[in-house]
TrEMBL record, chains A, B:
Lineage: Bacteria, Pseudomonadati, Pseudomonadota, Alphaproteobacteria, Rhodobacterales
Keywords, alphabetical: Magnesium, Metal-binding, Transferase
Gene3D superfamilies for the chain: Farnesyl Diphosphate Synthase
Signal peptide: none
Name of the protein in question: Polyprenyl synthetase family protein
Required cofactor(s): Mg(2+)
InterPro entries in alphabetical order: Isoprenoid_synthase_dom_sf (IPR008949), Polyprenyl_synt (IPR000092), Polyprenyl_synt_CS (IPR033749)
């Protein structure tokens, strides 16, 4: 494929799905509103309206388009998925008291913890109402299971984040909760609502799951090798926040006794000083863990693209394949 | 009715529903467990196992028993309702940063904010899975709407709590979110799952709603006139936490200019000093707002008992009526 093809596939998807996306935006605005509590749209507007890429709702719309679904439940499900995503972001923003004490930058600069929690709950409840309107028990089952995987992954991340014993397997579980569970639910419900065959529904799940894992691994890798100007993030944020991600997990697995002591001090005990990030990067360089992490991301991307094979051969399918390439192209 | 009848009706209900309640407890323990995140049962156990009265699940079981429901979905729904209640408690525990700064006692002494939020989310997700297992779209619709009312009421409470403009109407909306929405959903789904008639389902909703409102008004009144030894709460906690509840709302509505300035200082601006609680109580005495609040609670209790009329005449129904009397008997 040439470089134009992999330029911005999500923009081309957005063009192709423009009418449906407008429907999703209209529905989101309508359902965010609260007769009784004006604080709600105030808190959510900046998240929902902030010009996000609407990647997750687009996955649902794209899955439905693959099967020329004629109804409007996919609009509801796309809004559902975006509400769940936004609620998760709000709840992630809640700051540990211990976190504050360590002087970490707070993520909820604009509102207090309580607003983040309660408005997040409101969005969860709204998403729940929306999905019930589809009257599909299978869709409800998929989304209930995704919600449990997401919540379990979040708790796991909280407890495992700074624990050097965290394995690649636990990391994958966290990644599924954090990202892949909602991606795979988004694609799967799009297929279910459109009457896709079992094999196709499974393929849509597999695609969303692998795309989500690739996406999150790429994100974690970019934290260490990204271009701050392009990503808007500072290199090493995860290190400073003592988050064990794949590049570090791979380095810890091969660490000498002395190196292990370094990771214990900086990640487990959080005693960091100048030069530590540079040393961490040097250790990752020593064992080639950034390259190994990139290879993992690429493997997941390949898996995602392979899953697409049993789906109808059309422009949307090609764009989903290009989207997958794009997610990891930032790394290569 | 004699005093023995109104002694502890919830204990007699628990006796009558013992087998089902054991089923609920077993299910709760099974579904709390997390293969991946052992922190979860650790956080929830103290809430779920703390020997609560299991009032809400008992309402669901009682409603099903009224119609001799032979299945086991009522066990799932009772566990659902308890999970939602526990999740709400966990999220209520999250402390405002501003709240802490004012030196308010933190409610989440045992775990940090982040654990309360994420484990609460996990319980919500688990409750969602449980209710989907009943395969009743109507049940899902009822619980989705209850979830939205609860979340909206919580946000409303947060924004209205210290605002003197809060009317009795807004207070009622908060009370519905805080308490009555889950009571009414608990009774209603018990009827729906048992195949009760439309009139009976409506009656179960009305009963749960009015009982919940009476329960919360009683709770708010006891905060000002309770026996600290019996309730385990200190008189005036709501005043100190600047929460506008019915006794104060009624006093504010009749306040002179000078009295209004007192409420503005103590509730809106939170500048309280010694003697303020006593003065607040004197103002409530002057306008008889504790008596008026008690009369309101009794009216809601009467409404709840009246709703029971169309339900099958049996011991459970009489116990639900006694339970209603018991809720307000603490006040009389």
């Amino acid at each position: 494929m040439d470089s134009a093809t992999i330029s911005k596939p999500h923009e081309r998807l957005a063009e192709l799905l423009e009418t449906e996306l407008e429907g999703v935006n209209t529905l989101i605005r309508a359902r965010m509103a609260s007769r009784h509590a004006p604080r709600i749209p105030e808190v959510t507007a900046h998240l929902v309206e902030a010009g996000g890429k609407r990647l997750r709702p687009m996955l649902t719309l794209a899955a439905a388009r693959l099967f020329d679904y004629p109804g409007d439940h996919h609009i509801k499900l796309a809004a559902t998925v975006e509400f769940i995503h936004t609620a998760t972001l709000l709840h992630d923003d809640v700051v540990d008291e211990s976190g504050q004490r360590r002087g970490r930058p707070t993520a909820n600069l604009l509102w207090d913890n309580k607003s983040s929690v309660l408005v997040g709950d409101y969005l969860f409840a709204r998403s729940f109402q929306l999905m019930v309107e589809t009257e599909s028990l299978r869709v409800l089952d998929i989304l209930a299971n995704a919600a449990a995987t997401i919540a379990e992954g979040e708790v796991l991340q909280m407890t495992a984040a700074s624990n050097l014993a965290t394995s690649e397997e636990v990391y994958l579980q966290v990644v599924r909760g954090k990202t892949a569970a909602l991606f795979s639910a988004a694609t799967e419900v799009g297929g279910v609502i459109s009457g896709a065959s079992e094999a196709q529904v499974q393929a849509l799940f597999d695609f969303g799951d692998a795309l989500g894992v690739a996406f999150q691994i790429a994100d974690d890798l970019l934290d260490y090798q990204g271009d701050a100007a392009a990503t808007g993030k500072n290199v090493g944020d995860d290190f400073r926040e003592r988050k064990l991600t794949l590049p570090v997990i791979k380095a810890v697995a091969q660490a000498t006794q002395e190196e292990r002591a370094f990771w214990q001090r900086t990640i487990e005990r959080g005693r960091q000083s100048e030069g530590d990030l540079e040393h961490a990067l040097a250790l990752m360089g020593k064992y080639g863990t950034l390259e190994a992490t990139r290879a993992d991301a690429n493997r997941w991307a390949d898996k995602a693209k392979a899953a697409l094979d049993v789906l109808p051969d059309c422009e949307i399918r090609h764009l989903l394949s290009d989207l997958t390439d794009y997610v990891v192209s930032r790394l290569n």
